[in-house]
Amino acid sequence: MNQQKPTRQRRRRRKRSPFRRLIRFVALIAILFFISAASYGGYLAYKIKANADKSYVDTKKSDLRMDNVKLGKDPVTILLIGIENYQEGDVGRADVIKLITINPETKEAAMVNIPRDTRTYLSSIDRKDKINHSYAYGKKGEREKAVMEATENLMGIPIDYFVSTNFNGFEDVVDELGGITVDVPFDFKQGSFKRMITFKKGPMKMDGEEALAFVRMRKQDPRGDIGRNERESEAIRAIMDEAISVRSITKADNVIDQLGNNVKTNITTTEMFAMRNFYKTIKNKEIKPIQLETYPETINGISYEIPRDESIQEIRKKLSKILNIEDEVPKTDNSNE
Q1: What is the DSSP pairing of strand 161-165 with strand 76-84?
Q2: What pLDDT does 253 receive?
């Protein structure tokens, strides 16, 4: 049978390479934290607001929330979505899905990696499918909402905010920031669209082209998608660190222009600015990404990643504690029926 929908008891075009799917998420997190950090006077504030307003999408509160919450004041979740279009005219899929949970009072934060092939209930089609298909199945203008609902169905956690992005401009953003420094986990070689790049284990300063190659590599990683997810998170943290430290108005201006046309979010400009002090507080804290554990299974000829119930329960417990809703999270059905 279909997975039970979460209860309301709390009332609460171009053709693109699949290599690029996770990078757009890096671009989106850059704008989220960069915009909140780069307030250097009236002109820049105007630029920030103009671009943020252009990206803003209004959404209603989660059905798993009784009361409205506000970023920067209350414990909240933010769903980060990277959209991949595989061919001209394709609606696209949510091939990068990461769930961030933050508590501004306790200074706790967590980031959950959700595999794109995870099988879960999709409200928009009233059956189970891959979570990355939720975007394409959503109504026009509400596709991000469909991904939010699918994630709620999977995790049993209210999804308060989203930020979605496409790939355009990622390399330029990294270059405008002056590059990023990441910790390469092992030696490997990976081709960019121009050349073969050699990566050596240890800290490495990368430009945009190198950063793209670093995160797109999967086949040489002995841990496959899990290893790539960790490299994504490493690059995200490096971009946030560079963005928060920017002191050049020209550099800030260029980065905002690069990202302004490629992001959608339901986070207001005021809430973006409220993130600045929070990130500065946790900047030096090690936030290890949490991997949703799954196992492969073929159903009706289609390969899925089936979430392990014990992993769902463990993650939900951690996130509920951060959100201060530990005893209020509904049980979800992640069976294969």
Answers
A1: parallel
A2: 59
Most confident of 19-33, 187-201, 205-219: 187-201
Q: Which runs of E-coded beta strand occur in the chain?
A: 76-84, 93-103, 108-114, 119-122, 127-130, 161-165, 180-184, 188-191, 196-199, 202-206, 263-265, 290-291, 294-299, 302-307
Which of residues 72 and 4 earns the better pLDDT score?
72
Same domain, 137 and 200: no
Q: Specify the pTM.
A: 0.73
Instruction: Look up the CATH number of the domain holding residue 279.
Output: 3.30.420.590
Q: Which residues pair with 199 in a beta bridge?
A: 188
CATH of the domain at 213: 3.40.630.190
Neighbours of 298 (CB within 10 A): 8
Helix, strand or coil for residue 115? coil
Q: What angle do CA 176, 182, 187 make, to 5 degrees?
A: 125
Residue 276 lies in a domain: yes
Tell me which residue range forms the domain holding 45: 18-168+263-323
C-alpha span between 20 and 228 (Å, rounded): 12
Tally of structural domains, the chain: 2
Query: Does the pLDDT of residue 290 top 50, yes or no?
Result: yes
Distance CA 267, CA 55 (A): 9
pLDDT over 80 at 102, yes or no: yes
- One domain, residues 40 and 153: yes
- 8 A C-beta contact, residue 154 and residue 311: no
Would you say residue 329 lies in a domain? no
Sign of CA dihedral 277, 280, 286, 288: positive
* Pair (105, 143) in one structural domain: yes
Tell me the per-residue pLDDT of 225-277, one tens digit each, with 9 for 90 and over. 778 777 877 887 787 777 766 555 556 556 666 555 667 788 776 677 666 66
Q: Which pLDDT score, from 0 to 100, does residue 239 have?
A: 79
